[in-house]
Amino acid sequence: MTTNYNKKAIGEHQLKPESLMMGYGYDPQLSEGSIKCPNFQTSTFVFKSARDGKDFFDVVSGRRVLAEGEQAGLVYSRFNNPTLEIAENRIAIWDGAEDCAITGSGMSAISTTLLALSRPGDVIVYSEPIYGGTDTLINGMLKQMGIHAVGFMSSEGIDAYKAALDKAKSMGNISVILLETPDNPTNNLVDIAACREVADKIASDQDVAPVIAVDNTMLGPLWQTPLAHGADLCLYSLTKYVGGHSDLVGGSCSGSKALITRIRRVRNSIGTTMDSNTAWLILRSLETLKIRMQASNEGAAKVVAFLNEHPVVTRIDYPGLLKESDPQYAIYKKQCKGAGSTFSFEVAGGEAKAFAVLDKLKLVKLAVSLGGTESLAQHPAAMTHSGVPKERRDIIGITEGLIRISIGIEDPEDLIADLKQALED
Fold it and tell me: Catalytic annotation on 63?
């Protein structure tokens, strides 16, 4: 890569992220003039000399810190790979971050981050509800390793957050504050800036300040930028909106160079690195991220308007329906640039009716995941959040009649016609 392809401005004009996705960090002349970055599908790289090999290993292992403007040499694709690095640089642009590390899945991004920042005896404070896989990791596997967890209901606001911090402080050092906003699947919002302010006040009580990490998967980089509101780290399941075609699995974590260096070192050690072919697909997807997310966002608003008038639908969890009287409205207006295209709606009749609706869908696919070009619907209580105990599902609003839907880029009128016939008795 040459400096000509690492420019973010033309003179005084700052280029937008969607423009930078077309070539940032890639020099075609280093790849036979190929207009698109190739997939560097290789496990290892040839050193010019034994001295280079020694130096490159010192850098990737953290024994030597790169000087300003210096680039790490290529060693082995578990550590670094040109396709991965270009994808990381472009995701960092969307997040407004200094650096980014991409991983083999969204869960590997979360698990690698928590393992890098937590030690036995530490406490993780997290918002609820949270993705079922994350819930299982925090309250199951990490608990077995002596890492404790305290949750708080995101719908109960800053007071619930403060109470969780107080409880956590009595248990040990708070290593990470993990927020999922909007949450999955009920779309409750957490005020990132307010959480930052409170966390800063308790930082002096600890040897190391808590790291605020935000899972931004539900809104993606277009509709929310957590780092701009005080978060230290921004996490994604790249499988969702960033990948956007339901043909890959990946994750990422963006933040300061200091934090990402710590996370990347653990990633390289435990092998949660993304493969080069997936990174190449991510590069493809980043070029159309904006137009895909805009189209699905517009379509979701029309589908919500239809569902909001349907007599069988008893509840819709969608930020765009928030009223000024709702405490979360102010958070939404301050923090979000759009309502997104994944939301949940509840139907009268519990699981039986929800299953009947899902089974009758023809255009909308019955499948988990979200953020793809096609619309997907699923039943959280029986599927993505089935590992969460029922008593906790009841508390956090994951009812038996709840359906989560992710709107794709189909014509909204076609989606409405499909939902209309599915909702009929």
Answer: no
Q: In this model, does residue 2 exceed pLDDT 50?
A: no
What's the sign of the alpha-carbon dihedral 29, 30, 32, 37? Answer: negative
78, 196, 290, 392: the active-site residue:
78
> Are residue 260 and residue 300 in the same domain, yes or no?
no
Active site residue 78: yes
User: Which residues is 403 bridged to in the sheet?
Assistant: 345
Domain with 300, as residue range(s), is 289-423
Rounded mean pLDDT of the chain?
A: 95
How many domains in the chain? 2
- Whether residue 161 lies in the annotated active site: no
Same domain for 179 and 123: yes
Catalytic residue among 240, 264, 292, 393: 240
Which of 95, 99, 183, 215 is catalytic? The answer is 215
Task: Write down which residue in 260, 286, 312 finishes a domain.
Answer: 286
Tens of pLDDT, residues 315-372: 999 999 999 999 999 999 999 999 999 999 999 999 999 999 999 999 999 999 999 9
Whether 365 sits among the annotated catalytic residues: the reply is: no
SS3 of 95-133: the string is HCCCEEEEECCHHHHHHHHHHHHCCCCCEEEEEECCCHH
Q: pTM (2 decimals)?
A: 0.94
